[in-house]
Amino acid sequence: MKVQTNGDTISISGIKDLGASNANSFRDQVRAAMSDAHKHIEIDLSQAMFLDSCGLGALISLHKATCSRSGLVRLINPTPPVQQILELTRMHRIFEIVKR
Amino acid sequence: MIDSPVITLTPQLRASIACNLAHVRPVAQKLREFLGDQGVPEEDLMSCELAFVEACNNAVLYAPQKAESLPIDVSARCSDGQIEIAIHDHTTGFKLPAIVALPRNENESGRGLFIIRSIMDEITYTPDACGNTMVMIKRRSDSLTTQAHFSREKTEDYSRKLAESEQVISEMAEELSSCYETLSTIFRCGAELGKTNNVITFATSLCNDLLQITESDWYVLRIISEERTRLIPFATSVPGAKLEPLFVPSPGKATTVEMQAAATRRDVWFNTEQPVSQSDPLHQFGSESIGLVHPILFADNLTGTLTVGKSAGRSRFTAAQANIVHTFADFLAIQFVNTQLQEEQLKHKLVSRELEIAKSIQRALLPKTLPQPCGFGLAGYCEFAQTVGGDFYDVVPVSDNSLLLIIADVMGKGIPAAMFAAILRSVLRAAPELNQQPAALLQRVNRLLYEELSEVEMFITAQLAFLDFEKRELIVASAGHCPILLGSPTSQLKAISPDGIPLGILPDANYETHIEQLPRDARLLLYTDGLTDARNISGSFFSEERLLIWFKSVSTEDKTAEELKLSLADAVHQFQGEAAPFDDQTFLILAEQNSARRRNVPENFSR
Fold first, then answer.
1. Interface list for chain A against chain B, based on CB atoms closer than 8 Å
2. Does ipTM come in above 0.90?
3. CATH label, B12-152, candidates 3.30.565.10, 1.10.8.60, 3.40.190.150, 3.40.50.150
């Protein structure tokens, strides 16, 4: 996983799986990278082939963190299986999903 | 505690997973591989893997501390119809609700069961003394049984959708059929366009088709008059309709809907809200008619109007119907213009034919050979212009030593001018007793032709020159014709122009006689004004001045009449250059041959 910061945005990329085994560590790493200056989180999901309810839980946790800073979580180019889970659980309405 | 899964490689997969989240995914991937080997479609693989992970995660997460050392036993069986996955956990168990709701958005957990319920077809959860077993069944999407199952479940839904689709297809078919009908009519009209010369039959047939296609009841077709000021009724579907020509007004001054469409070049609609006025001729088709007037245009020129109407109470025109009216109007415009062009072509052909006839007459009037009086040469030249006819010359032998030279120009074109030239030639030859009295001959001819000429407002200029070679005498009379030129190497050039008005102007005109002696080595030129009026490309005339210069220059040269003819024709041609002759160019040249040449010619006339 790669973390970059760009102004008020933290960009995460290189995620392949986001499930029960790594969701907590993912959440904690992103939170740790966030400073007061960061409002938004951009997560590149173009390589993520698996997302389960624990992974979703981590994303929701980050979403809450950005909401408290009037920011948002932006999911970039989710793969079809990930997009399917987001839609199944109605999470596509919570996150900003960007296809570039 | 068993750290690694034990896999039985049979159509059934069995494994034991340590109670640790990190161990779940590898087994899930093995499951995926196993199912993949059984030919399970990708979408089912994804669902099974995710449901398996969610169920195992729960088994790990909710395992009480005392059960953390116990493995989670899993198994999967795959048949043609379905995949059955069983997970045996050691949690305290729970009651599986009939409906699993999604937790609130802000909840970070609690979605596992919802996901399983959503993506698997059946779930059972059975508590047991030795643990609990969750069995999840996924019907294979590639199985016929599954498809049959689904179709049973959704028969009603499908039936409804089918009925809806049938309705849509039926509507589309109807629309398509209407489009086909319209198109085939358009193609038929297109094919007829170039063929028919009968515009009224074509227009009537086209408009009747239009009524049928647009579900209309009547039409009125008007075409623009030749002077382009009035709309003339051309065809209508209503027998006995009273339709008068309408003037094409300036915009704003139209008093009827048809005039309005013609003036504005735009469609004018009428209906119950905007009815045609009582004074409008279309009012006779019903005060509550619905319809439109379409101006028929070709290359921005108004060629007519087409009004299509429906009786009161019928549905209004759709956009498609209005488009069809426009298309048909375009066809009519093309046919109108075609017909107009054909008529013009025919007229042009007739005119060309008439000119051909006129030219044939003219050519026939000219003498085939000219008499050659003793010691003299005679040559005639006549080049006809494209459209003008009426010049001719003639040479009438009077006696062995005399002859009458005639040159004339009938003012007019085509057959009438040629006819008068023919008549003149006959009349001039009909009184041989007057051949020696040119003025008297002209007077007679004028009297005979005056009535006919004045009736058609034509006149003729002519010049007669009687030559007596024995007396070396020249007697000239002219009816408003160009002067005759007389010259010789030794004498002064003379332009002889006795008084006399053209033939056909006054009934009792008198003509002066001019008598002149022929000088030695005389040269005589009779010509029509087409020669001096010859123009070059910049518009300058050949003019009398240039003619006199030429005549003076050749008077001193020893040339035969034929050589002089070629020289003058060449001089005029060179002057004209590329410009086409505007008028007939005609002349007669008489040249006395000097003594040296005279020895080589016969004594008497050769005819």
1. 17, 19-21, 50, 52-54, 56-58, 60-61, 64, 81, 84-85, 88-91, 94
2. yes
3. 3.30.565.10
